[in-house]
Design a protein that fits this description.
With 266 residues, the protein is of the alpha/beta class. The chain has one domain: 3-Layer(aba) Sandwich (Rossmann fold). It has nine helices and ten strands. The strands form two sheets. Strands 6-5-3-4-7-8 form a six-stranded mixed β-sheet, sandwiched between helices. Strands 2-1-10-9 form a four-stranded mixed β-sheet. Helix 2 crosses helix 4. The chain is globular, with a radius of gyration of 17 Å. The relative contact order is 0.18.
């Protein structure tokens, strides 16, 4: 199978793709699935939404009444990308693990990782240190970002090769503090449509977890097929995101509203 020219400097995910003969048949025949060769899913999901529908529309709403607009989400995603690339030296293709419950900052981090050309490694926040350690050994993240309330298990599992960063704490080195010092201006890395964007571990109930691999175009295809034709969202719809936002299943649900720039509850 012929792959497009990758933007990844770190070729770990490309080198670990399964043999082409084991892949399912990928049929991108619908007109809405004719994606360009250079495609960054985060740029489409947030930058295009702001450009086409304006920055003032609500994007995320939390139970305590906090609302982030699309413009605010874009700025914070850009700041995350700046922290990763400018402060931590992340290069395209590096893996960045995310750990935390549904909240706006985990969404901003998810987008920021993709905009930086890096690969999101999704985890469930209830995993114990031994389970997190297994995922770290399988995916080899350069950085791990965690809600500060879930840091203990991650810190116990991370080795010297993984930089661990919290968000939501009062620490001066916290991701949110670092982001506050950034301009919020960032141009998304022009990844290939078939560059890996997301590594989603399985639950591991039958043994060692397997790592599912998702391309940038796969993330958009979820929204551009099921959402467009079945859900048919409008601009005033509110989506409740029940899957944990870092998880692979959330990539379909959380971004289903991209067609109409509706907003989501964290």
């Amino acid at each position: 199978m012929t792959m497009l020219r990758s933007a990844h400097v770190d070729t770990f995910t490309h080198d670990h793709l399964p043999p082409a003969g084991t892949w399912p048949t990928l049929e991108f025949t619908l007109p809405e699935l004719q994606y360009p060769e250079r495609l960054n899913a985060a740029a489409v999901l947030i930058d295009h939404a702001v450009a086409n529908h304006g920055a003032a529309r609500p994007a995320l709403r939390t139970p305590d009444g906090t609302v982030w607009t699309y413009g605010e989400l874009q700025q914070r995603a850009n700041q995350v990308a700046q922290v990763l690339t400018e402060d931590l030296g992340v290069v395209p293709g590096n893996r960045v693990m995310l750990r935390g419950p549904n909240n706006p900052w985990i969404v901003a981090a998810w987008l920021g990782v993709l905009k930086a050309g890096a690969v999101v490694v999704t985890t469930m926040p209830m995993l114990r240190s031994s389970e997190v350690g297994t995922l770290i050994s399988l995916t080899r993240p350069a950085v791990a970002i965690s809600d500060h309330r879930f840091m203990d298990e991650l810190a116990a599992a991370a080795g010297e090769d993984t930089v661990v960063l919290s968000y939501g704490s009062d620490d001066a080195g916290d991701l949110t503090s670092r982001c506050a010092a950034k301009s919020g201006e960032f141009t998304a890395v022009p990844t290939a449509a078939d560059d890996v964007a997301l590594l989603g571990p399985t639950s591991g109930t039958t043994g060692t977890p397997k790592i599912t691999m998702h391309f940038h175009r796969d993330i958009l295809a979820n929204a551009d097929t099921f959402a467009r034709h079945i859900l048919q969202p409008t601009a005033d719809d509110v989506f409740a995101g029940s899957p944990p936002s870092p998880s692979p299943s959330a990539s379909a649900g959380w971004w289903s509203s991209r067609c109409a720039s509706a907003h989501r509850r964290c």
